[in-house]
Amino acid sequence: MAMNSLDGLQAQIIARAEEDEGFRTRLLADPKAAILREFGISIPESVNVEVHEDGSNIAHLVLPAVHLAEDELALIAAGQGDEYEDDPYADYPDR
Fold first, then answer.
1. Which of 3, 16, 47, 72 has the most CB atoms less than 10 A away?
2. Tens of pLDDT along 47-68?
């Protein structure tokens, strides 16, 4: 789903929740089921949807995903990455 489409869907969900108390309650209890029921959109299991009511004592920070440098991506693609200085399995010869 493109970012503009996602922004539009978010706006529709918020508008519906402001108008319909039943939808708001369902959305807070089970966001994926409420969105599927009201909008016919199935959200993949791999996507976590969190919905909560805003308040004057709540601040929301959404951080961008961590992006790896090209050399870090190359190491991961090659099956390398962070390695333990002390091998936690050194005492287990049958590994």
1. 16
2. 999 998 988 888 888 887 787 7
| Alpha-carbon dihedral sign for residues 62, 65, 69, 70 | negative
Return d(Cα 13, Cα 34) in angstroms, integer: 10
CA distance 23 to 10: 14
Would you give the distance in Å from CA 3 to the centre of its chain?
14
Cβ neighbours of residue 52 under 8 Å, at least 6 residues apart?
A: 28, 58
Give the whole-angstrom CA distance, residue 49 versus residue 27: 10
Token pair for residue 16? 């519906």
Contact 32, 39 (CB under 8 A): no
